[in-house]
């Protein structure tokens, strides 16, 4: 997610058109970001709900739930409704919906703060400071909303008839009471943070490289004039999505072991082999042993990529489309 924030911030937002009406530029700008935040949150809720069945299957298979560990992705998608009903595919989605808005708000506010701080204190500007600010903002948002992610995973891992938690509030109370208080909500946080560094760096570098090579070798086919400056070429929307998808897939290949380790640490107390995940590095290697070989780490990698590329499209690809549509949208709103 930090990489998505960094990539989405790679280009500054388009200049806002001046329009007659009440309110100065600052008021109009605040109103614009409020609407962008609400629209992004609603879009995120719709997107997360759409892929919620795949997300639950990923959790069940990554942590080897004993009811489904012998099945594949599509077999599990068929088995879950048979065992738990169709709503079983959406276990944990409520906590995800609650997490989306605070995550987006924290990420946006932190990005603006870090961008200003890096520029004024370190004197760094351009793409580098946006990458740094985006990565730091993503990490901040993850840390602040991590308890909700922990609860979501615990609820998603439960199987009908074997419920440890009856709902979101009960999960919060139980984890707090039985797993060391507040720190119990942060099991697996370090693999998450460690996985962000290679993911952010590789995805940003790959996306930038693909963009530069594409515009230099096939500017007419892949590029279009920028709405802000017709003399500057930017990628077409569908090419932007494609480049983001390729960059995300390559970055996920590098960071995927951290994602599996995080899930197994989050579920440490409910897994039969929880005593094996005593520390971060130990959990990483012991999880590989539990999966019989490092190759098994990537058993469900394609499913993971599908879920991540949905985020990539939302955070990166739509940025290019917004460049063309923001002005008309704002004018329709009476600005």
UniProtKB/TrEMBL annotation:
Broad class of the protein's primary localization: mitochondrion
Pfam families: Mito_carr
Keywords: Membrane, Mitochondrion, Mitochondrion inner membrane, Repeat, Transmembrane, Transport
Topology in membrane: Multi-pass membrane protein
InterPro entries: GDC-like, MCP, MCP_dom_sf, MCP_transmembrane
Solcar repeats by residue range: 31-117, 125-213
Any single biological process term in GO: transmembrane transport
Recorded coiled-coil stretches: none
Cellular component, GO, one term: mitochondrial inner membrane
Location in the cell: Mitochondrion inner membrane
Family membership: Belongs to the mitochondrial carrier (TC 2.A.29) family.
Protein name per UniProt: Graves disease carrier protein isoform X1
Native source organism of the sequence: Tursiops truncatus
Gene: SLC25A16
């Amino acid at each position: 997610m930090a990489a998505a924030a960094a990539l989405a911030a790679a280009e500054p937002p388009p200049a806002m058109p001046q329009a007659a009406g009440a309110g100065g530029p600052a008021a109009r700008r605040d109103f614009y970001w409020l609407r962008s935040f609400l629209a992004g949150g609603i879009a995120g809720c719709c997107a997360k709900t759409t892929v919620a069945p795949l997300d639950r299957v990923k959790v069940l298979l990554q942590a080897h739930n004993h009811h489904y560990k012998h099945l594949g992705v599509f077999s599990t998608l068929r088995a879950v409704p048979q065992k738990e009903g169709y709503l079983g595919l959406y276990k944990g989605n409520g906590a995800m919906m609650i997490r989306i808005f605070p995550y987006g708000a924290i990420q946006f506010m932190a990005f603006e703060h870090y961008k200003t701080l890096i520029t004024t204190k370190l004197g760094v500007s351009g793409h580098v400071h946006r990458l740094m600010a985006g990565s730091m903002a993503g990490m901040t948002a993850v840390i602040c909303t991590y308890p909700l992610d922990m609860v979501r995973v615990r609820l998603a891992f439960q199987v009908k008839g074997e419920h440890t938690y009856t709902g979101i509030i009960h999960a919060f109370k139980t984890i707090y009471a039985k797993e060391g208080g507040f720190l119990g909500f942060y099991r697996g946080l370090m693999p998450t943070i460690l996985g962000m560094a290679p993911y952010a760096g590789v995805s940003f570098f790959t996306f930038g490289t693909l963009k530069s090579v594409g515009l230099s070798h096939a500017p007419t086919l892949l590029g279009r004039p920028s709405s802000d400056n017709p003399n500057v070429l930017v990628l077409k929307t569908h090419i932007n999505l494609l480049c983001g998808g390729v960059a995300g897939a390559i970055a996920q290949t590098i960071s995927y072991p951290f994602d599996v380790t995080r899930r197994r640490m989050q579920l440490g107390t409910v897994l039969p082999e929880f005593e094996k995940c005593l520390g971060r590095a130990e959990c990483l290697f012991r999880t590989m042993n539990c999966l019989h070989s490092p190759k098994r780490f990537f058993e469900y990698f394609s499913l993971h990529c599908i879920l991540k590329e949905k985020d990539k499209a939302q955070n990166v690809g739509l940025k290019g489309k917004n460049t063309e549509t923001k002005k008309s949208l704002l004018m329709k709103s009476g600005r």
